[in-house]
Design goal:
RBD_domain_sf
């Protein structure tokens, strides 16, 4: 799978608050250089942006400075993620269609699924080990208590042991 080349003068801005629009995004990034374009793709169902946008600068250096300064910064109470953007998508009306077929990331999807299953298996093993350790601990405590009860019973049955215990307790 070929790696998509990044667009060095366009930054992806993720983590946008609902109230942030293109004008606010423009105002937040203009201190870093002249801006050619700002886009916040809309969700067709809600007609609201999907909490991310793109800012295209005239100069690549300005995009790099904006990324360095704004990644991790806060805007309207939300922490932003700012990276170089991947190439623009092929246009299909306003919603835009992905430049890659839907199965292109199937391998990484399967890898993520396998990693997730492995983590769940490890967690289940750890939980089982903890339960086994707790059960063993409970058994040992029960055995110790049982041993103490047997000692008490032996003392009641053995007059010599009772007498020894009394002498030891007095001394």
């Amino acid at each position: 799978m070929a790696q998509q080349a990044v667009q060095k003068n366009t930054v992806y801005v993720g983590g946008l608050a609902e109230e942030v629009n293109e004008a606010i995004l423009h105002a937040a990034f203009i201190p870093f250089g002249d801006i050619k374009d700002v886009k916040t793709p809309l969700d067709q169902a809600t007609q609201k942006h999907r909490s991310f946008g793109f800012v295209t600068f005239l100069e690549k250096e300005d995009a790099a400075v904006a990324m360095d300064n704004m990644d991790g910064a806060e805007l309207y109470g939300r922490v932003l993620t700012v990276n170089y953007a991947l190439p623009e998508r092929i246009k299909g009306g306003e919603q835009g269609w992905a430049a890659q077929p839907i199965w292109a990331d199937a391998d990484t999807w399967f890898e993520r699924q396998q990693e997730e299953e492995e983590m769940q298996r490890i967690q289940a093993e750890n939980q089982a080990a903890m339960r086994a350790a707790e059960e063993l601990h409970r058994k040992k405590l029960a055995e110790e208590r049982q041993g103490e009860k047997e000692e008490d019973r032996e003392m009641k049955d053995d007059p010599m042991a009772r007498a020894e215990a009394e002498v030891l307790n007095q001394g």
